C-alpha cells in the first residue's frame, strides 16, 4: 500500500514559541521549529509507518520540552521500520517524558496522538485533545477521543455540571504525557480500522480544531486538489480566524 503525507507546523499569530511537534516515522521531526512543512509522495507503507502529533500543554514549565522529547522518542522507536501498536508507543513515550521530568526536576506535559499504518489498515491511540479524523466519501469522522474534563462529564451524563465552567473544562486534560505511573497509569484511547484508496486521515493539534469549524475542515478535505493544497488551506484558515494557538496539521492520503 502507498500513501502520501503532507505536514506543517506553525507557531500561529499570538504565541511566542511553537510548543507543537510532529514526527513522521524515522523521516522527519519538527521539534521546536516556528514553521516547518513536509511532503512525501507515494510512500510504501512496507511493514509499518508511524506518525505522531504532540502539543505541549500551556501553563506547564517546559511544555515545548515535553512535546520535543515525545517526538524524538517516537522517531527512535520508529527506526525499526515495522508496525508497532500506537498505544504501546504512547506508554513508552510517557515513560521517557517522566524520566526526563525527574532528571530535570521540572514538570512537563503534552498531548499525544499516534497513528500506525500497515498494509490496508491503521491503528490510532491518543491521550489529550489532539484530534484524528477519517474522511471517506466526503464524510468526516473523529476517531480519536478528547480526554478533557468536559468530555468526561458528557460521557457519564453530567453535562449539567458544566454550567458556566464549560470553557475551562474543555481545556482541562484528564490524560496526557507526563503522568508518572505512581500517580496513575495513562490509558490511551485505541481504534483499529481498515483503510481504502482515497481515504484521508487528518491529525492535528487544537490550534486547528479550535480555530476552524469541523464542517469547514470537512469541506476543504472533500474538495478536489492536491494534498499539499488542502494542508495549506487548512493552515491559512486557522491563521485567518485568529491563530491564537500553535497549529500542526498532518494529512495522510491512501493511494
How would you characterize the overall build of this protein?
It is a single chain. This protein has helices spanning 63-77, 86-104, 149-155, 166-171, 206-209, 214-222, 227-240, and strands at residues 2-10, 20-24, 28-29, 35-44, 49-55, 112-117, 121-127, 131-136, 139-142, 189-194, 200-204, 247-254. By secondary structure, the chain is an alpha+beta fold. The strands form 2 sheets. A 6-stranded antiparallel sheet has the order 4-1-12-11-8-9. The protein has a 6-stranded antiparallel sheet with strand order 3-2-5-6-7-10, with helices on one face. The longest helix has 19 residues, at 86-104. The protein is globular. The model has no long low-confidence stretch (mean pLDDT 92).
Entry summary:
Strand 6 and strand 7 form a beta hairpin. With 255 residues, this protein is α+β, with helices and mostly antiparallel strands.
Provide keyphrases for this structure:
255 residues; 6-stranded antiparallel β-sheet; 12 strands
- Biggest sheet record: 6 strands, antiparallel
Number of distinct helices: 7
Oligomer classification: single chain
Helix/strand-derived category reads: alpha+beta
Cα shape: globular
SSE string: EEEEEHHEEEEHHEEHHHE
Q: What portion of the residues fall into strands of 2 or more residues?
A: 25-35%
Which percent bin holds the helix content?
25-40%
**Mean pLDDT over the full residue set:** 92
Quote the distance from N terminus to C terminus. Answer: 7 Å
With strands numbered from the N-terminus, the spatial order across the biggest sheet is 4-1-12-11-8-9
Backbone CA Rg: 17 Å
Amino acid at each position: 500500500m502507498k500513501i502520501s503525507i503532507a505536514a506543517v507546523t506553525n507557531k500561529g499569530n499570538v504565541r511566542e514559541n511553537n510548543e507543537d511537534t510532529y514526527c513522521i516515522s524515522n523521516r522527519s521531526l519538527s521539534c521546536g521549529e516556528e514553521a516547518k512543512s513536509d511532503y512525501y509522495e507515494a510512500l510504501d507503507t512496507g511493514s509499518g509507518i508511524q506518525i505522531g502529533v504532540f502539543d505541549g500543554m500551556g501553563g506547564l514549565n517546559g511544555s515545548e520540552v515535553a512535546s520535543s522529547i515525545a517526538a524524538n522518542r517516537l522517531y527512535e522507536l520508529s527506526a525499526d521500520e515495522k508496525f508497532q501498536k500506537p498505544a504501546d508507543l504512547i506508554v513508552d513515550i510517557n515513560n521517557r517524558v517522566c524520566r526526563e521530568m525527574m532528571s530535570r526536576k521540572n514538570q512537563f506535559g503534552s498531548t499525544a496522538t499516534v497513528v500506525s499504518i500497515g498494509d490496508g489498515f491503521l491503528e490510532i491511540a491518543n491521550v489529550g485533545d489532539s484530534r484524528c479524523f477519517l474522511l471517506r466519501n466526503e464524510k468526516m469522522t473523529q476517531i480519536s477521543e478528547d480526554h478533557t474534563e468536559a468530555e468526561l462529564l458528557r460521557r457519564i451524563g453530567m453535562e449539567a455540571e458544566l454550567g458556566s465552567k464549560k470553557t475551562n473544562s474543555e481545556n482541562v486534560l484528564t490524560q496526557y504525557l507526563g503522568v508518572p505511573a505512581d500517580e496513575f497509569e495513562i490509558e490511551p484511547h485505541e481504534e483499529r480500522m481498515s483503510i481504502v484508496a482515497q481515504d484521508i486521515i487528518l491529525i492535528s493539534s487544537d490550534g486547528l480544531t479550535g480555530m476552524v469549524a469541523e464542517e469547514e475542515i470537512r469541506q476543504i478535505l472533500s474538495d478536489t486538489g492536491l494534498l499539499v493544497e488542502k494542508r495549506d488551506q487548512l493552515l491559512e484558515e486557522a491563521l485567518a480566524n485568529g491563530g491564537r494557538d500553535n497549529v500542526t496539521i498532518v494529512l495522510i492520503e491512501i493511494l
